Structures are given as structure tokens and as C-alpha cells.
Amino acid sequence: MKLVSSAFADGAAIPRRFTCDGENLSPPLQWSDAPEGARSLVLLCDDPDAPAGKWHHWAVYDIPPAVTEFAINAVQNARMKQAVNDFRKVGYGGPCPPHGHGPHHYHFRLLALSMEGLPAKANASCADIEREARKHVIAEATLVGWYER
Questions:
Q1: Could you tell me which residues are beta bridge partners of residue 65?
Q2: Domain holding 30: CATH number?
Q3: What is the 3-state secondary structure (H, E, C) of the chain?
Q4: For the chain (length 149 residues), average pLDDT per consecutive 10?
Q5: pTM of the complete model
Q6: Which domain holds residue 72?
Q7: Number of folded domains in the chain?
């Protein structure tokens, strides 16, 4: 599988508009080559450089395999199932590293799952979604961008 964004290249800086210093919009994402056996997809975004350990910014789950992209600010689509991020909000929370902490790397990961719907509880956290999804992963793609304040 391949995961890309028209807003930033893999390994490049994430534009300010997709961060807490800008409009805090979720970036446009496109993906391809999901395996034939994929029954659903999960999109995760986290920051492993956070001072207290991995910070979860976004989890979207039960994405139909026929979907191949999210437009800018896709989080506004009320039909999307999204988890509670580490900012304690449902949906996307853009990069917002501590000032002067150096560049943080944001890992957008697309997981193809062998099952159609995750058994997620109401108000599931991003970590809950990732933990459950990991049991059913058949393919994974990663896109990494960085941001510094």
C-alpha cells in the first residue's frame, strides 16, 4: 500500500495550516494498492517524539476499502468514525509540539484490516483503536511529516 499527501512529501515539513498554529485542518491524504483481502481501513496519526511518549493525534476507523482519499479537513464528515485523541477531543488534533523542543515527526499510518468493523466502545481513544486494529492488520503504509515550534 502507498499513503501520500498533496500537502507535504514523505519526510518533509507539514504546512502550518494543518497544525495548532494554523487552521488545525486535517491534511489531504490519498492512498492506493490496498490488498484484495482488506475489509476495512484505519488511519492513525501520532507523534513518537512527544516528551511523555507517543501522543495520539487522530484515529479514523471502519473506513470502507473503496475509499481512497480524504480531502482537506475530512474530519468534518460526520459519518466518519473517529476516536478521542490525546487532546481529549474526537477527531483530528494537528501537530502542536512544545516550543523549543526541536522537530517532531508525525506518523500517518494507514492499516488494512481483515475485518469489516472494529468492536470499538463509545468514546474509544486513538490508542484503543490502534490496539484493536493491530490484531487484524494485513498491510500498512506510512507517511511521515515533521513540524517544529
A1: none
A2: 3.90.280.10
A3: CEEECCCCCCCCECCHHHCCCCCCCCCCEEEECCCCCCCEEEEEEEECCCCCCCEEEEEEEEECCCCCEECCCHHHCCCCEECECCCCCECCCCCCCCCCCCCEEEEEEEEEECCCCCCCCCCCEHHHHHHHHHCCEEEEEEEEEEECC
A4: 98 98 97 96 97 96 94 81 96 96 97 94 95 97 98
A5: 0.95
A6: 2-147
A7: 1
Q: Can you give the length of the chain in residues?
A: 149
pLDDT number for residue 45:
98
Residues 6+ positions from 128 with CB-CB distance below 8 Å:
83, 120, 121
Please state, as a whole number, how many other Cβ atoms lie within 10 Å of the Cβ of residue 66. 7
- Residues 72 and 28 sit within 8 Å (Cβ to Cβ): yes
CA distance 31 to 114: 17
Cβ within 8 Å of residue 73, ≥6 positions away: 25, 26
Q: Which whole-number Å values give the CA distances from 133 to 16, 21, 145, in the listed order?
A: 30, 31, 23
Closest to 108 (Cα-Cα) out of 84, 66, 140: 140
